[in-house]
Protein backbone atom coordinates (compact mmCIF):
# COMPACT_ATOMS: atom_id res chain seq x y z
CA UNK A 1 0.00 0.00 0.00
CA UNK A 2 1.16 3.49 -0.81
CA UNK A 3 0.24 6.78 0.82
CA UNK A 4 -1.07 9.53 -1.46
CA UNK A 5 -2.40 13.03 -1.16
CA UNK A 6 -5.22 13.45 -3.68
CA UNK A 7 -6.40 16.89 -4.85
CA UNK A 8 -9.72 17.81 -6.43
CA UNK A 9 -11.26 21.16 -7.32
CA UNK A 10 -14.24 22.76 -8.97
CA UNK A 11 -11.69 24.54 -11.22
CA UNK A 12 -9.05 23.08 -13.54
CA UNK A 13 -5.80 22.49 -11.68
CA UNK A 14 -2.38 23.18 -13.18
CA UNK A 15 1.00 21.58 -12.65
CA UNK A 16 3.02 22.61 -9.61
CA UNK A 17 6.35 24.41 -9.50
CA UNK A 18 8.34 21.22 -9.87
CA UNK A 19 9.83 20.85 -6.40
CA UNK A 20 6.80 18.85 -5.26
CA UNK A 21 5.33 16.57 -7.89
CA UNK A 22 1.63 17.18 -8.49
CA UNK A 23 0.99 14.36 -10.92
CA UNK A 24 -1.94 14.79 -13.26
CA UNK A 25 -4.33 11.85 -13.16
CA UNK A 26 -7.30 10.91 -15.28
CA UNK A 27 -10.29 12.42 -13.51
CA UNK A 28 -11.55 9.86 -11.03
CA UNK A 29 -14.42 9.95 -8.60
CA UNK A 30 -13.77 8.76 -5.07
CA UNK A 31 -16.53 8.42 -2.47
CA UNK A 32 -16.34 11.39 -0.10
CA UNK A 33 -15.06 13.86 -2.69
CA UNK A 34 -17.48 16.38 -4.22
CA UNK A 35 -15.32 16.83 -7.34
CA UNK A 36 -13.23 14.48 -9.49
CA UNK A 37 -9.62 14.05 -8.40
CA UNK A 38 -7.24 15.89 -10.76
CA UNK A 39 -3.83 15.63 -9.08
CA UNK A 40 -1.99 13.28 -6.75
CA UNK A 41 1.15 13.50 -4.66
CA UNK A 42 2.84 10.11 -4.57
CA UNK A 43 4.07 9.03 -1.11
CA UNK A 44 2.06 11.81 0.51
CA UNK A 45 3.44 14.69 2.53
CA UNK A 46 6.06 13.99 5.18
CA UNK A 47 8.30 17.03 5.50
CA UNK A 48 7.83 20.71 6.39
CA UNK A 49 9.07 21.89 2.98
CA UNK A 50 6.44 19.70 1.28
CA UNK A 51 3.70 21.32 3.37
CA UNK A 52 5.02 24.77 2.39
CA UNK A 53 4.99 23.78 -1.30
CA UNK A 54 1.43 22.43 -1.03
CA UNK A 55 0.34 25.62 0.77
CA UNK A 56 1.89 27.73 -2.02
CA UNK A 57 0.26 25.59 -4.71
CA UNK A 58 -3.16 26.04 -3.10
CA UNK A 59 -2.62 29.79 -2.66
CA UNK A 60 -1.64 30.16 -6.33
CA UNK A 61 -4.63 28.09 -7.47
CA UNK A 62 -7.09 30.05 -5.34
CA UNK A 63 -5.65 33.42 -6.46
CA UNK A 64 -6.74 32.72 -10.05
CA UNK A 65 -10.43 32.31 -9.17
CA UNK A 66 -13.06 34.45 -7.42
CA UNK A 67 -14.89 31.37 -6.17
CA UNK A 68 -13.02 28.13 -5.74
CA UNK A 69 -13.04 24.89 -3.79
CA UNK A 70 -10.11 22.53 -3.30
CA UNK A 71 -10.42 19.17 -1.62
CA UNK A 72 -7.34 17.36 -0.33
CA UNK A 73 -7.29 13.87 1.14
CA UNK A 74 -4.59 11.64 2.58
CA UNK A 75 -5.47 8.12 1.45
CA UNK A 76 -3.79 4.75 1.14
CA UNK A 77 -3.95 3.32 -2.36
CA UNK A 78 -3.96 -0.45 -2.68
CA UNK A 79 -5.40 -3.02 -5.02
CA UNK A 80 -6.82 -4.73 -1.94
CA UNK A 81 -8.57 -1.76 -0.30
CA UNK A 82 -11.05 0.72 -1.79
CA UNK A 83 -10.14 4.41 -1.50
CA UNK A 84 -12.32 5.76 1.28
CA UNK A 85 -12.66 9.04 3.16
CA UNK A 86 -13.49 8.55 6.84
CA UNK A 87 -13.24 12.11 8.20
CA UNK A 88 -14.16 15.44 6.58
CA UNK A 89 -13.17 18.94 7.63
CA UNK A 90 -13.92 22.39 6.20
CA UNK A 91 -11.62 25.42 6.18
CA UNK A 92 -12.17 28.83 4.61
CA UNK A 93 -9.27 29.92 2.43
CA UNK A 94 -8.95 33.13 4.48
CA UNK A 95 -8.28 30.92 7.54
CA UNK A 96 -5.51 28.92 5.84
CA UNK A 97 -2.57 30.69 7.45
CA UNK A 98 -0.16 27.90 8.35
CA UNK A 99 1.09 25.09 6.07
CA UNK A 100 0.77 22.67 9.00
CA UNK A 101 -3.02 22.95 8.62
CA UNK A 102 -2.55 20.79 5.51
CA UNK A 103 -1.02 17.87 7.41
CA UNK A 104 -3.82 15.31 7.29
CA UNK A 105 -4.37 12.03 9.05
CA UNK A 106 -4.84 8.92 6.97
CA UNK A 107 -8.36 8.84 5.43
CA UNK A 108 -8.97 12.52 6.25
CA UNK A 109 -10.36 14.96 3.67
CA UNK A 110 -10.00 18.73 3.97
CA UNK A 111 -12.22 21.05 1.92
CA UNK A 112 -10.89 24.59 1.44
CA UNK A 113 -13.40 27.18 0.17
CA UNK A 114 -12.91 30.64 -1.26
CA UNK A 115 -16.13 32.59 -1.77
TrEMBL record:
Keyword tags: Plasmid
Superkingdom field: Bacteria
Descriptive protein name: Uncharacterized protein
Organism taxonomic ancestry: Bacteria, Bacillati, Bacillota, Bacilli, Bacillales
Amino acid sequence: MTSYYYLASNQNMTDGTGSLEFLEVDAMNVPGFDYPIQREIFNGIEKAWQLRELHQYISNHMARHANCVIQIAHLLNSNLVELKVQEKNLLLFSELTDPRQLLLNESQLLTIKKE
